[in-house]
User: What shape does this take?
Amino acid sequence: MSDARHEARSNSTPQANAAATIRPDEAAHFGALAAEWWDPKGSSAMLHKLNPVRLGFVREAIDTHWGGDVRDPQPLAGKTALDVGCGAGLLCEPLARMGAAVTGLDAAEENIAAARAHAAGSGLEIDYRAGELADAALGQFDLVTSLEVLEHVADKGAFLSGLAYRLKPGGLMVLSTPNRTAASRLLLVGAAEGTGAIPAGTHHWDDFVTPDELEALLADTGLQVTETRGIAWRPGKGLHLSDDFSLNYIMSVRAA
Assistant: This one.
């Protein structure tokens, strides 16, 4: 076991009196999609298109936060990373290739089984676990990520507090989530789910959070946003980082 992974496990005091954040129906919905998670043409096709955009932001945030060399293929060497709501590992595997000792946590056992199988086939050592964020004896991490997850949890304040609890002093957090706008209702919920580009029932528009709302929730947990970018879509370019926050956004966060 690497020193970094041992350190993450040694600080494993559970978070006391934390509210449950998993919605069983949400876990069941995504668990039912586990077998196709790694199929770029399957039910998670949109995630495969979104992932390179998110990874571009994550890599830039890592280099900015720790003053790394953009040419370094392993900017997370010697560091620990936790991805919450990891699905079958679309983000965990790139983080592991960047050198991190990675832990992935998801609400659905089916997703964790698929993640373990894919990591084994890829020759990657990733600590995958299923369960509630507050219940898991996880320790603290240099990098905490949770992408396209906040909109699915039952208690957003408790969930963000749980993420903050897992972040080491001086660490980096990256979050992404859809914005609650007329455009996201029309395109993400109506058009994307209506045409099958995203599985029906994936999104509930009332659960989307605006950037201002999320920034206020983070401030309540002692965290500060350092950068926010929109994730937009347009014909001929597809999904890309943008100053347009109307559909989706991604942000880097640190302790205030």
